[in-house]
Amino acid sequence: MKRLVIVGGGNAGTLISNLLAGKLDITVIEPNEYHIYQPGLVDYIIGDVGEDKIKMPTRSVLKQSIKWVKSKATKIIPEDRAVITEDGQRYEGDYLIIATGGQNKSIFNLRGYHTLDEVRAIREEVLNPKGKNFVIGSLPGIIKCPAAPWELSFLIKRKYPDANVNVIIPAKQPPPLQVPMSNMFNKKASELGIKVYKGFVINEVNHNERYIVSTEGEKVKFDHLIIDTPIFTSFTELADKSGLIPVDKDTLIHKDGVFVVGDVNNTPTPKTGAAAHFQAEVVVNNILYEIEGNRSKEKYDGTAMCAVYSGIGEGMLVWLNYEKSKALGPISLYYHMKKMFTNLYWASLNGSIDVVLRPMVASIRKIV
Ligand SMILES: Cc1cc2nc3c(=O)[nH]c(=O)nc-3n(C[C@H](O)[C@H](O)[C@H](O)COP(=O)(O)OP(=O)(O)OC[C@H]3O[C@@H](n4cnc5c(N)ncnc54)[C@H](O)[C@@H]3O)c2cc1C
Protein backbone atom coordinates (compact mmCIF):
# COMPACT_ATOMS: atom_id res chain seq x y z
CA MET A 1 0.00 0.00 0.00
CA LYS A 2 1.28 3.49 -0.84
CA ARG A 3 1.96 5.74 2.14
CA LEU A 4 0.39 9.18 2.51
CA VAL A 5 1.53 11.69 5.10
CA ILE A 6 -0.78 14.64 5.78
CA VAL A 7 0.44 17.59 7.81
CA GLY A 8 -2.55 19.34 9.39
CA GLY A 9 -5.84 17.72 10.34
CA GLY A 10 -8.11 20.72 9.79
CA ASN A 11 -10.84 21.01 7.19
CA ALA A 12 -8.79 19.93 4.14
CA GLY A 13 -6.47 17.42 5.85
CA THR A 14 -9.32 15.58 7.58
CA LEU A 15 -11.47 15.34 4.47
CA ILE A 16 -8.60 14.04 2.32
CA SER A 17 -7.58 11.46 4.90
CA ASN A 18 -11.14 10.18 5.34
CA LEU A 19 -11.80 9.98 1.60
CA LEU A 20 -8.59 8.00 1.03
CA ALA A 21 -8.81 5.81 4.15
CA GLY A 22 -8.44 2.14 3.31
CA LYS A 23 -6.84 2.92 -0.06
CA LEU A 24 -3.53 4.22 1.28
CA ASP A 25 -1.60 3.86 4.50
CA ILE A 26 -2.36 7.27 6.03
CA THR A 27 -0.65 9.25 8.79
CA VAL A 28 -2.11 12.60 9.87
CA ILE A 29 0.13 14.91 11.90
CA GLU A 30 -2.02 17.29 13.94
CA PRO A 31 -1.18 18.73 17.37
CA ASN A 32 -4.67 19.72 18.49
CA GLU A 33 -6.85 17.49 20.62
CA TYR A 34 -9.96 19.14 19.13
CA HIS A 35 -11.05 19.94 15.60
CA ILE A 36 -12.78 23.34 15.41
CA TYR A 37 -15.47 24.32 12.92
CA GLN A 38 -14.03 27.78 12.32
CA PRO A 39 -16.99 29.45 10.55
CA GLY A 40 -18.94 28.61 13.72
CA LEU A 41 -16.66 30.90 15.72
CA VAL A 42 -18.86 33.76 14.50
CA ASP A 43 -21.99 32.03 15.87
CA TYR A 44 -20.07 31.42 19.08
CA ILE A 45 -18.93 35.04 19.47
CA ILE A 46 -22.46 36.31 18.98
CA GLY A 47 -23.79 33.84 21.55
CA ASP A 48 -25.86 31.68 19.19
CA VAL A 49 -24.03 28.43 19.99
CA GLY A 50 -21.87 27.03 22.76
CA GLU A 51 -18.42 25.48 22.38
CA ASP A 52 -19.87 21.98 22.15
CA LYS A 53 -21.44 22.78 18.76
CA ILE A 54 -18.21 23.85 17.10
CA LYS A 55 -15.62 21.42 18.39
CA MET A 56 -15.10 17.67 18.18
CA PRO A 57 -12.26 15.45 19.38
CA THR A 58 -9.71 15.09 16.57
CA ARG A 59 -9.69 11.30 16.91
CA SER A 60 -13.45 11.15 16.39
CA VAL A 61 -13.40 12.99 13.05
CA LEU A 62 -10.70 10.72 11.59
CA LYS A 63 -11.66 7.23 10.38
CA GLN A 64 -10.26 4.47 12.58
CA SER A 65 -7.69 3.15 10.07
CA ILE A 66 -5.96 6.55 9.95
CA LYS A 67 -2.91 6.91 12.15
CA TRP A 68 -3.04 10.18 14.08
CA VAL A 69 0.26 11.58 15.31
CA LYS A 70 -0.55 14.17 17.97
CA SER A 71 2.43 16.38 17.33
CA LYS A 72 3.49 19.50 15.50
CA ALA A 73 5.54 19.38 12.31
CA THR A 74 8.64 21.55 12.65
CA LYS A 75 10.27 20.84 9.31
CA ILE A 76 8.94 19.78 5.93
CA ILE A 77 11.27 18.36 3.29
CA PRO A 78 9.28 18.33 0.04
CA GLU A 79 12.13 16.72 -1.96
CA ASP A 80 11.85 13.61 0.27
CA ARG A 81 8.07 13.95 0.89
CA ALA A 82 9.09 13.92 4.55
CA VAL A 83 8.15 15.68 7.76
CA ILE A 84 9.97 16.07 11.06
CA THR A 85 7.88 16.58 14.17
CA GLU A 86 8.76 18.50 17.33
CA ASP A 87 9.77 15.29 19.10
CA GLY A 88 12.32 14.59 16.35
CA GLN A 89 10.38 11.80 14.57
CA ARG A 90 10.56 11.61 10.79
CA TYR A 91 7.57 10.60 8.65
CA GLU A 92 7.95 9.93 4.96
CA GLY A 93 5.37 9.04 2.33
CA ASP A 94 4.93 8.24 -1.33
CA TYR A 95 2.67 11.28 -1.18
CA LEU A 96 2.86 14.29 1.13
CA ILE A 97 0.01 16.71 1.68
CA ILE A 98 0.57 20.04 3.40
CA ALA A 99 -2.72 21.30 4.87
CA THR A 100 -1.53 23.40 7.79
CA GLY A 101 -3.90 26.34 7.21
CA GLY A 102 -2.81 29.90 7.88
CA GLN A 103 -0.94 31.17 10.91
CA ASN A 104 -1.20 34.73 12.24
CA LYS A 105 1.40 37.06 13.67
CA SER A 106 0.46 39.34 16.50
CA ILE A 107 0.65 42.82 14.98
CA PHE A 108 -0.03 45.95 17.09
CA ASN A 109 -0.83 43.51 19.89
CA LEU A 110 -4.11 42.66 18.20
CA ARG A 111 -5.81 39.41 19.12
CA GLY A 112 -6.93 37.16 16.28
CA TYR A 113 -10.21 35.34 15.99
CA HIS A 114 -9.21 31.98 14.55
CA THR A 115 -9.17 29.73 17.60
CA LEU A 116 -11.49 29.09 20.51
CA ASP A 117 -8.87 30.43 22.91
CA GLU A 118 -8.71 33.70 21.01
CA VAL A 119 -12.44 34.19 20.67
CA ARG A 120 -13.52 33.41 24.25
CA ALA A 121 -12.59 36.93 25.36
CA ILE A 122 -14.21 38.47 22.29
CA ARG A 123 -17.43 36.59 23.02
CA GLU A 124 -17.38 37.83 26.59
CA GLU A 125 -17.06 41.43 25.38
CA VAL A 126 -19.72 41.06 22.69
CA LEU A 127 -22.22 39.49 25.09
CA ASN A 128 -21.51 42.02 27.87
CA PRO A 129 -20.37 45.16 26.09
CA LYS A 130 -18.98 47.99 28.23
CA GLY A 131 -19.37 50.64 25.56
CA LYS A 132 -21.19 51.30 22.28
CA ASN A 133 -18.27 51.67 19.84
CA PHE A 134 -17.37 48.52 17.94
CA VAL A 135 -14.57 48.63 15.39
CA ILE A 136 -14.32 45.50 13.23
CA GLY A 137 -12.12 44.77 10.23
CA SER A 138 -8.69 43.66 9.15
CA LEU A 139 -5.13 44.64 8.44
CA PRO A 140 -3.91 44.57 4.81
CA GLY A 141 -2.96 41.16 3.40
CA ILE A 142 -4.63 37.80 2.92
CA ILE A 143 -7.08 37.01 5.71
CA LYS A 144 -9.21 33.95 6.37
CA CYS A 145 -12.69 34.32 4.94
CA PRO A 146 -12.82 38.00 3.88
CA ALA A 147 -16.58 37.98 4.56
CA ALA A 148 -16.15 37.22 8.27
CA PRO A 149 -15.55 40.81 9.52
CA TRP A 150 -18.64 41.98 7.60
CA GLU A 151 -20.71 39.12 8.97
CA LEU A 152 -19.67 39.91 12.50
CA SER A 153 -20.48 43.59 12.08
CA PHE A 154 -23.96 42.82 10.67
CA LEU A 155 -24.73 40.47 13.55
CA ILE A 156 -23.46 42.87 16.21
CA LYS A 157 -25.44 45.78 14.76
CA ARG A 158 -28.59 43.61 14.66
CA LYS A 159 -28.00 42.56 18.25
CA TYR A 160 -27.31 46.11 19.45
CA PRO A 161 -29.14 48.52 17.11
CA ASP A 162 -27.94 51.50 19.19
CA ALA A 163 -24.28 50.55 18.91
CA ASN A 164 -21.88 52.45 16.65
CA VAL A 165 -20.50 49.72 14.45
CA ASN A 166 -17.55 50.66 12.22
CA VAL A 167 -15.96 48.45 9.58
CA ILE A 168 -12.31 48.92 8.64
CA ILE A 169 -11.41 47.85 5.09
CA PRO A 170 -7.74 48.33 4.16
CA ALA A 171 -8.26 48.27 0.37
CA LYS A 172 -9.57 51.38 -1.37
CA GLN A 173 -11.07 49.15 -4.07
CA PRO A 174 -11.73 45.40 -3.87
CA PRO A 175 -10.02 43.09 -6.41
CA PRO A 176 -12.26 42.79 -9.53
CA LEU A 177 -13.65 39.36 -8.58
CA GLN A 178 -14.71 40.63 -5.17
CA VAL A 179 -16.64 43.65 -6.49
CA PRO A 180 -20.12 41.99 -6.42
CA MET A 181 -19.52 40.81 -2.84
CA SER A 182 -18.17 44.18 -1.77
CA ASN A 183 -21.14 46.04 -3.30
CA MET A 184 -23.61 43.75 -1.55
CA PHE A 185 -21.88 44.12 1.83
CA ASN A 186 -21.56 47.90 1.51
CA LYS A 187 -25.26 48.18 0.64
CA LYS A 188 -26.26 46.12 3.67
CA ALA A 189 -23.93 48.12 5.92
CA SER A 190 -25.47 51.36 4.73
CA GLU A 191 -29.03 50.01 5.32
CA LEU A 192 -28.08 49.02 8.86
CA GLY A 193 -26.29 52.30 9.66
CA ILE A 194 -22.83 50.74 9.85
CA LYS A 195 -20.00 53.12 8.98
CA VAL A 196 -17.46 51.71 6.51
CA TYR A 197 -13.91 53.09 6.33
CA LYS A 198 -12.47 52.08 2.94
CA GLY A 199 -8.73 52.30 2.32
CA PHE A 200 -8.10 52.53 6.07
CA VAL A 201 -4.70 50.99 6.77
CA ILE A 202 -4.12 50.81 10.50
CA ASN A 203 -0.83 52.44 11.50
CA GLU A 204 -1.29 52.69 15.26
CA VAL A 205 -3.41 50.96 17.87
CA ASN A 206 -3.63 52.65 21.26
CA HIS A 207 -5.08 49.97 23.52
CA ASN A 208 -5.03 52.22 26.62
CA GLU A 209 -6.74 55.26 25.18
CA ARG A 210 -8.74 53.02 22.83
CA TYR A 211 -8.30 54.42 19.35
CA ILE A 212 -6.74 53.39 16.06
CA VAL A 213 -5.04 55.70 13.56
CA SER A 214 -4.69 55.11 9.81
CA THR A 215 -1.55 55.73 7.73
CA GLU A 216 -3.33 58.89 6.56
CA GLY A 217 -3.82 60.13 10.10
CA GLU A 218 -7.52 59.37 10.51
CA LYS A 219 -8.44 58.42 14.07
CA VAL A 220 -11.31 56.10 15.09
CA LYS A 221 -12.22 55.47 18.72
CA PHE A 222 -13.30 52.09 19.98
CA ASP A 223 -14.64 50.37 23.05
CA HIS A 224 -14.36 46.98 21.38
CA LEU A 225 -11.79 46.24 18.71
CA ILE A 226 -11.99 43.10 16.56
CA ILE A 227 -9.34 43.25 13.83
CA ASP A 228 -8.17 40.25 11.84
CA THR A 229 -4.51 39.92 10.90
CA PRO A 230 -3.11 38.40 7.71
CA ILE A 231 -2.18 34.76 7.42
CA PHE A 232 1.13 33.22 6.42
CA THR A 233 2.69 29.76 6.69
CA SER A 234 5.02 29.07 9.58
CA PHE A 235 7.09 27.04 7.06
CA THR A 236 8.55 30.28 5.71
CA GLU A 237 11.33 28.49 3.82
CA LEU A 238 8.64 27.01 1.55
CA ALA A 239 6.70 30.25 1.06
CA ASP A 240 6.69 32.71 -1.82
CA LYS A 241 6.36 36.44 -1.31
CA SER A 242 2.66 36.13 -0.46
CA GLY A 243 3.76 34.25 2.68
CA LEU A 244 1.99 31.09 1.49
CA ILE A 245 3.23 27.96 -0.30
CA PRO A 246 3.25 28.09 -4.12
CA VAL A 247 1.34 25.48 -6.12
CA ASP A 248 0.12 24.96 -9.63
CA LYS A 249 -3.33 26.55 -9.23
CA ASP A 250 -5.13 23.81 -11.21
CA THR A 251 -3.52 20.71 -9.69
CA LEU A 252 -2.38 22.08 -6.27
CA ILE A 253 0.95 20.34 -6.82
CA HIS A 254 3.95 21.96 -5.16
CA LYS A 255 6.51 19.34 -6.22
CA ASP A 256 6.32 15.78 -7.48
CA GLY A 257 4.11 13.86 -5.01
CA VAL A 258 3.58 16.92 -2.81
CA PHE A 259 0.22 18.72 -2.72
CA VAL A 260 -0.58 21.87 -0.75
CA VAL A 261 -4.28 22.24 0.04
CA GLY A 262 -6.53 24.84 1.68
CA ASP A 263 -5.62 28.18 3.27
CA VAL A 264 -1.87 27.48 3.18
CA ASN A 265 -1.47 27.49 -0.60
CA ASN A 266 -1.09 30.56 -2.81
CA THR A 267 -4.10 29.94 -5.09
CA PRO A 268 -5.73 33.29 -5.94
CA THR A 269 -9.04 32.43 -4.32
CA PRO A 270 -10.46 33.61 -0.97
CA LYS A 271 -9.41 31.43 1.94
CA THR A 272 -12.58 29.56 2.78
CA GLY A 273 -13.59 26.14 4.03
CA ALA A 274 -15.51 25.64 0.80
CA ALA A 275 -12.34 26.22 -1.26
CA ALA A 276 -10.45 23.83 1.04
CA HIS A 277 -13.20 21.22 0.54
CA PHE A 278 -13.26 21.48 -3.27
CA GLN A 279 -9.46 21.46 -3.46
CA ALA A 280 -9.36 18.36 -1.24
CA GLU A 281 -11.74 16.53 -3.59
CA VAL A 282 -9.56 17.33 -6.62
CA VAL A 283 -6.42 16.07 -4.87
CA VAL A 284 -8.18 12.88 -3.73
CA ASN A 285 -9.41 12.22 -7.25
CA ASN A 286 -5.97 12.78 -8.76
CA ILE A 287 -4.22 10.54 -6.25
CA LEU A 288 -6.77 7.81 -6.96
CA TYR A 289 -6.20 8.38 -10.66
CA GLU A 290 -2.52 7.64 -10.10
CA ILE A 291 -2.96 4.60 -7.90
CA GLU A 292 -6.12 3.06 -9.39
CA GLY A 293 -6.32 4.64 -12.82
CA ASN A 294 -10.10 4.10 -13.07
CA ARG A 295 -11.06 7.75 -13.58
CA SER A 296 -9.92 10.91 -15.33
CA LYS A 297 -7.81 13.66 -13.81
CA GLU A 298 -9.56 16.76 -12.47
CA LYS A 299 -8.59 20.40 -12.20
CA TYR A 300 -9.48 22.84 -9.44
CA ASP A 301 -11.24 25.82 -11.04
CA GLY A 302 -10.91 28.19 -8.08
CA THR A 303 -14.42 27.59 -6.72
CA ALA A 304 -15.02 29.12 -3.32
CA MET A 305 -18.35 29.77 -1.69
CA CYS A 306 -19.51 31.44 1.47
CA ALA A 307 -22.91 31.89 3.04
CA VAL A 308 -22.89 35.02 5.19
CA TYR A 309 -25.35 35.94 7.94
CA SER A 310 -26.67 39.44 7.39
CA GLY A 311 -29.07 39.21 10.31
CA ILE A 312 -31.12 36.69 12.22
CA GLY A 313 -33.05 34.76 9.58
CA GLU A 314 -31.36 36.56 6.69
CA GLY A 315 -28.27 35.59 4.73
CA MET A 316 -26.28 36.16 1.58
CA LEU A 317 -24.29 33.84 -0.66
CA VAL A 318 -21.02 34.66 -2.31
CA TRP A 319 -19.72 32.35 -4.99
CA LEU A 320 -16.65 32.66 -7.18
CA ASN A 321 -14.04 30.79 -9.16
CA TYR A 322 -10.85 31.93 -10.92
CA GLU A 323 -12.87 33.68 -13.63
CA LYS A 324 -16.15 35.03 -12.32
CA SER A 325 -18.07 35.78 -9.17
CA LYS A 326 -21.57 36.41 -7.97
CA ALA A 327 -23.19 37.72 -4.79
CA LEU A 328 -26.75 36.60 -4.06
CA GLY A 329 -29.37 37.58 -1.50
CA PRO A 330 -30.09 38.57 1.15
CA ILE A 331 -32.77 35.91 1.59
CA SER A 332 -33.71 33.59 4.43
CA LEU A 333 -32.59 30.44 2.52
CA TYR A 334 -28.89 31.36 2.78
CA TYR A 335 -29.21 32.03 6.50
CA HIS A 336 -30.75 28.62 7.08
CA MET A 337 -28.23 26.93 4.77
CA LYS A 338 -25.41 28.32 6.88
CA LYS A 339 -27.09 27.47 10.19
CA MET A 340 -27.73 23.94 9.01
CA PHE A 341 -24.11 23.55 7.95
CA THR A 342 -22.99 23.94 11.57
CA ASN A 343 -24.34 20.40 12.03
CA LEU A 344 -23.58 19.12 8.54
CA TYR A 345 -19.93 20.20 8.72
CA TRP A 346 -18.96 17.12 10.71
CA ALA A 347 -20.52 14.84 8.11
CA SER A 348 -18.88 16.84 5.31
CA LEU A 349 -15.50 15.83 6.76
CA ASN A 350 -15.94 12.24 5.67
CA GLY A 351 -17.69 12.95 2.40
CA SER A 352 -20.95 11.40 3.63
CA ILE A 353 -23.07 14.41 2.65
CA ASP A 354 -21.57 14.68 -0.82
CA VAL A 355 -24.78 13.15 -2.19
CA VAL A 356 -26.54 16.33 -1.04
CA LEU A 357 -23.64 18.76 -1.35
CA ARG A 358 -22.70 17.94 -4.95
CA PRO A 359 -26.19 18.53 -6.49
CA MET A 360 -26.55 21.67 -4.34
CA VAL A 361 -23.26 23.07 -5.58
CA ALA A 362 -24.13 22.08 -9.15
CA SER A 363 -27.41 23.97 -8.92
CA ILE A 364 -25.68 27.04 -7.47
CA ARG A 365 -23.19 26.86 -10.38
CA LYS A 366 -26.17 26.98 -12.76
CA ILE A 367 -27.59 30.13 -11.09
CA VAL A 368 -24.27 31.91 -11.31
C1 LIG B 1 -13.94 33.46 12.11
C2 LIG B 1 -13.87 32.64 10.85
C3 LIG B 1 -15.00 32.56 10.02
C4 LIG B 1 -14.96 31.82 8.86
N1 LIG B 1 -16.10 31.74 8.08
C5 LIG B 1 -16.11 30.96 6.99
C6 LIG B 1 -17.31 30.76 6.24
O1 LIG B 1 -18.35 31.33 6.56
N2 LIG B 1 -17.27 29.95 5.17
C7 LIG B 1 -16.12 29.30 4.78
O2 LIG B 1 -16.15 28.53 3.79
N3 LIG B 1 -14.96 29.47 5.46
C8 LIG B 1 -14.93 30.28 6.56
N4 LIG B 1 -13.78 30.41 7.29
C9 LIG B 1 -12.51 29.86 6.76
C10 LIG B 1 -12.33 28.38 6.96
O3 LIG B 1 -12.53 28.03 8.30
C11 LIG B 1 -10.93 28.00 6.51
O4 LIG B 1 -10.75 28.47 5.19
C12 LIG B 1 -10.73 26.50 6.55
O5 LIG B 1 -10.76 26.04 7.88
C13 LIG B 1 -9.38 26.15 5.90
O6 LIG B 1 -9.12 24.79 6.01
P1 LIG B 1 -7.62 24.26 6.07
O7 LIG B 1 -7.71 22.79 6.20
O8 LIG B 1 -6.84 24.85 4.97
O9 LIG B 1 -7.03 24.89 7.40
P2 LIG B 1 -7.51 24.66 8.90
O10 LIG B 1 -8.91 24.16 8.93
O11 LIG B 1 -7.18 25.91 9.61
O12 LIG B 1 -6.59 23.46 9.40
C14 LIG B 1 -5.21 23.56 9.53
C15 LIG B 1 -4.75 22.52 10.53
O13 LIG B 1 -3.34 22.41 10.50
C16 LIG B 1 -2.86 22.26 11.80
N5 LIG B 1 -1.47 22.71 11.83
C17 LIG B 1 -1.00 23.97 11.75
N6 LIG B 1 0.34 23.98 11.85
C18 LIG B 1 0.72 22.68 11.98
C19 LIG B 1 1.98 22.05 12.13
N7 LIG B 1 3.12 22.75 12.17
N8 LIG B 1 2.02 20.71 12.25
C20 LIG B 1 0.87 19.97 12.21
N9 LIG B 1 -0.37 20.53 12.08
C21 LIG B 1 -0.44 21.87 11.97
C22 LIG B 1 -3.79 23.14 12.64
O14 LIG B 1 -3.77 22.74 14.00
C23 LIG B 1 -5.13 22.90 11.97
O15 LIG B 1 -5.85 21.85 12.56
C24 LIG B 1 -13.78 31.14 8.48
C25 LIG B 1 -12.65 31.20 9.30
C26 LIG B 1 -12.69 31.95 10.48
C27 LIG B 1 -11.47 32.00 11.36
TrEMBL record:
Top-level taxon: Archaea
Domain FAD/NAD(P)-binding positions: 3-279
Alphabetized GO MF terms: oxidoreductase activity
Top-level class of the enzyme under EC nomenclature: oxidoreductase
Listed EC numbers: 1.-.-.-
Stated name of the protein: FAD/NAD(P)-binding oxidoreductase
UniProt-listed InterPro entries: FAD/NAD-bd_sf, FAD/NAD-binding_dom, SQRD
Protein source organism: Sulfolobus tengchongensis
Pfam family, one: Pyr_redox_2
Keywords assigned by UniProt, alphabetized: Oxidoreductase
